[in-house]
Amino acid sequence: MKKAILFIPARIGSKRLLKKNIQEVWGKPMIEWVIKEALEAELVSEVIVGSDSEEVIKIALDAGANTVKRGRHYCTDNVSKIDAGKEMSIKWGISQDVPIVLAQANSPEVDFETINEMVTVLNSTDRKEVITTWKGNQHGALRAVKDYSQLWTPHLSYKLAYLERDWVDIHTEEDLNEVEGTRKAAHLRRDSSSASGVTTGCSEAN
Question: What residues of the chain score a pLDDT lower than 70?
Fold first, then answer.
């Protein structure tokens, strides 16, 4: 079983919710929750946070992640998560044939079980890509590709698998209030018991 390298792109600039990736959720900067789950995933060999901000890099290092400094031109509004993954993989010197997981810093409900499931799917099937969705719509929480070369594929692979997860990507004050409010009790139960608390299942797109 090939272990994955997990990247967390985390620029400091954001328009709707300032410094959203380090906004406090459940008592910590939200990126810390993503790092924590990534580090607990047994099928992840390295966790790397990429940012243009020394503030974000310090938080990431304190939480146990490795870091790379991202170029400003890769930290604008029109740069995709895949493009960020390309930059980070080049700077980290990745060339080996291993799965790569891209995790969103502003998705604090991410859990290590889902990360492990994604990596398992990539290792044990012909799927080239796995994404998280909810009710058929892709959200940005997690996206995993079979290997380094797949980052250069411009569109989602037709050999795609998806996992249904009812998670909130935090982009606005309203999103933040929802996660801090109605979803806090569920998070606290999960954090104390290390249980998943999410719907499990993998579907494939032909």
Answer: 13-16, 73-79, 95, 154, 192-206
User: Residue 8: is it exposed, middle or buried by C-beta count within 10 angstroms (0-12/13-18/19+)?
Assistant: buried
Residue 49 CB neighbours (<10 A): 28
Q: pTM score, two decimals?
A: 0.87
Give the residue among 81, 78, 74, 179 at the shortest CA–CA distance from 132: 81
Antiparallel, parallel or unpaired: β 129-134 and 66-69: unpaired
Number of domains the chain contains: 1
Other C-beta atoms closer than 10 Å to the C-beta of 11 total 22
Who contacts 192 (Cβ-Cβ below 8 Å, separation ≥6)?
A: none
Residues whose CB falls within 8 Å of the CB of residue 198, separated by 6 or more in sequence, listed in order: 109, 111, 113, 114, 165, 166, 167
DSSP single-letter state for residue 52: S
What is the CA 90 to chain-centroid distance, rounded?
18
User: pLDDT tens, 70-107?
Assistant: 777 656 666 677 777 778 888 888 867 899 999 999 99
Domain that holds residue 192: 4-205
What is the domain-level CATH number for residue 57?
A: 3.90.550.10
